[in-house]
């Protein structure tokens, strides 16, 4: 029985190793790239608030200068929706904490919501940014989530 189990495990291992060396040829159809001449700028949108149990310090991008204003609006709405969802989530959590802390007579401490961004690349029809969402909810340390956004500047799609 042990020999059979050992043989079976060995065959599975060899199958996994062998399958990693098998490549399938897949034809790729190249898309025509259309360079677009537009002066795109990224401005800082800032939200700074200081509530009883939440400190908000957010700097996030506002894309400007795209010729097609619907595309510009779509890109900005995508980012702003994520930013506002993050802020609202932490506001709700901090309000629950505040209510409980007051009921229990605890010292009031502040949650923290911080956002900053980096613009990595903007050329032709591609814009690439990272937005960093940092939250501190009174634990041992905070938590940062990095969200990458790669937008097609011709249609606003990610």
Characterise the protein shown here.
With 158 residues, the chain is of the alpha+beta class. The protein has a single domain, classed as Fervidobacterium nodosum Rt17-B1 like (Heat Shock Protein 90). It is 34% helix and 35% strand. Strands 1-2-3-4-5 form a five-stranded mixed sheet, with helices on one face. The protein starts with a helix and ends in a 6-residue tail after the last strand. This is Deacetylase PdaC domain-containing protein. It holds the Pfam family PdaC. It comes from marine sediment metagenome.
CATH topology grouping = Heat Shock Protein 90
Shape type: flat
- The end-to-end distance, rounded to whole angstroms, is 54 Å
Radius of gyration: 24 Å
The name of the CATH superfamily reads Fervidobacterium nodosum Rt17-B1 like
Mean pLDDT: 84
Strand content: 25-35%
The H/E string reads HEEHEEE
Q: How many separate domains?
A: 1
Based on secondary structure, the structural category is alpha+beta
Q: Characterize the biggest β-sheet.
A: 5 strands, mixed
In helices, the fraction of residues equals 25-40%
CATH architectural label: 2-Layer Sandwich
Query: Which CATH class?
Result: Alpha Beta
Give unreliable regions as ranges.
16-36
Tally the helices: what do you get?
A: 2
Give me the count of strands.
Answer: 5
What brief labels describe this structure?
single chain; alpha+beta; 2 helices; 35% strand; 158 residues; Heat Shock Protein 90; 5-stranded mixed β-sheet
């Amino acid at each position: 029985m042990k020999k059979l189990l050992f043989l079976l495990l060995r065959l599975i291992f060899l199958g996994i190793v062998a399958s990693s060396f098998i490549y399938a040829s897949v034809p790729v159809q190249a898309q025509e790239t259309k360079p677009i001449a537009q002066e795109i700028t990224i401005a800082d949108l800032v939200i700074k608030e200081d509530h009883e149990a939440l400190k908000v310090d957010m700097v996030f991008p506002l894309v400007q200068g795209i010729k097609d204003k619907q595309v510009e609006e779509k890109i900005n709405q995508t980012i702003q929706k994520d930013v506002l969802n993050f802020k609202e989530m932490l506001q709700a959590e901090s309000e629950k904490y505040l209510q409980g802390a007051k009921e229990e007579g605890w010292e009031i401490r502040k949650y923290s919501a911080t956002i900053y961004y980096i613009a990595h690349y903007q050329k032709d029809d591609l814009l690439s940014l990272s937005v960093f969402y940092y939250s501190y909810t009174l634990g041992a340390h905070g938590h940062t989530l990095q969200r990458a956004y790669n937008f097609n500047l011709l249609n606003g799609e990610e």
